[in-house]
Amino acid sequence: MKASDTTQTVLHNLGISSFNEMQRATSSAFETAEGVLLLSPTGSGKTLAFLFPILQQLNPKGNKVQALVLTPSRELALQIEQVWKKMQTGFKVICAYGGHDMPSEINSLKEAPALLVGTPGRIADHLKRKSFDASAIRYFVFDEFDKSLALGFEEDMEYITKQIRPSALRVFVSATASIVIPEFATPKNLTVLNFLKKEESVPAVEMLTVWSNDKDKVKTLFELLCTIGTEQVLIFCNHRESVERTSSLLKEMGIETGIFHGGMEQMQREQALIKFRNGTTQFLVTTDLAARGLDIPDIDHIVHYHLPSTFAEFTHRNGRTARMNKTGTIYLILHESESIPNYVGEAPPAFALTEKNKVPKPSAWGTVYINAGKKEKINKVDIVGFFFQKGKLQKEDIGLIVVKDHNSFIAIRKKAIPSMLKLVRDEKLKGKKFLIMEAR
Domains of the chain by range and CATH? Predict the structure, then answer.
C-alpha cells in the first residue's frame, strides 16, 4: 500500500480529516533524528503522533518485536493498544502489564507482535524470562516517561534500555517541559519538538480557592459539590487511603462518588472510568493515577482536595479540564494553616460556597454490564438492536456504549433498567446466553 493510501486509511479509521502540526512534525523527526523529545499538551494527540510513523516503518515480513512503547500505567498502555487497533494497521499488538495473566502474555508473545506496549516492570520481567526477542526493536518509545520515573520504575527502565540496541530510535513523550531524561536513556543527539506554547499551556480555566474552616476538609468539599451541582467533577487526593475515606464520608452525607486508584483491581478501575465517562458517576475521587493519559473528556471541574508535591503533577491534574478549546474551573481547598506551594504562588481568588447545602440530584444514568465483547463477535450495533427488540428500550434510553475484548458496558437510563433486565433475562444475544446485569 502506498504511503498516501496508508495515511488516508488511518485518518478514515480514526474519524479525523488530517494530522495536526505536532503530528506532522513528529513523523518528519522519525525519518532523520537519533532521538526525539516530544513535548505537547494533554489531549493534543501525542499517541497518534508516535504510532503513525512507527506504522509507516514496520516490516510486514518481520517475525520479531519491531517497536516497544513503555507507559507508567496499565490504563495508558490499554489506551495506546486501543488507538493502534482502531487504526486497523494489520500488524499484531500485545499489551503487557502487572495484574494481567502472565502465562497468557507469554503464550501471546510466542508469535511476536510488531508492536509491544507495556509497563516497565512487566516488560523487564518478560525480558528476564526471554519471553520475546528484543534484537529487532527499531523504535523505543518512553510515553509519559517522567511519570514512570516518579513511580519508581527507573531501575526497570534502565534494564530494558540496556537490552535494546543503541541504534533504535528513542522517543520521549511528555505533557510537561520540567523533565530530565535519565543519563542511561539519553541519546547522543536529541531532536526537541516543543509544542507547549504559552497560549496552549495556559488553558481556558478559572482557578479559585475554597477556604475551609476545618483542617479535615470533607465538610467543605461536600459544600463545594452541593454548590457545583450535577456537572462532572474530578477530585484529587494524594493517597489511596484518602480516596477511600473521602468517598465514604461523602456517601454518608448523601453524595455518591466513584473512586479510582492503583490499589484497585484492573476490572474495578476500568469500570470506574467507564461509569465516569458515560455519566453514571458524576463525582470521581482519585489519586494522581487519573492525572495523565486517560481518555476522560469534557470534565467541567477539577478539585484539589490535597495539593500535589510538584508543579508537574499540578499541571497534569489541571490538564484534565479545559481540553479541546473548552473551559473549566479548578478549585484549591485550603485550610489557613496550610502552606501554599511555591508553584501556586499567591492563593487564587476566593470562591463563595452556597449557604443552602442542596445535595446534587443523582445521575439519571446507570451502567449495564454484559460478559461478552469483541472476542465473542459482539459489537455496538448488536447491543443496540438487542436492547431495542428484546429489552423494549427507546433510542433516548441508551447512552455511551463501550465494547472491550470480553465484556461490554452500556449507559442506560436508570428508570428503564429494572424492566429491561427482566425482559432480557432469558434471551440470547447473537444466539448465545450471556450474563446481563447492572454494574455496581
Answer: 3-199 (3.40.50.300), 203-335 (3.40.50.300), 365-438 (3.30.70.330)
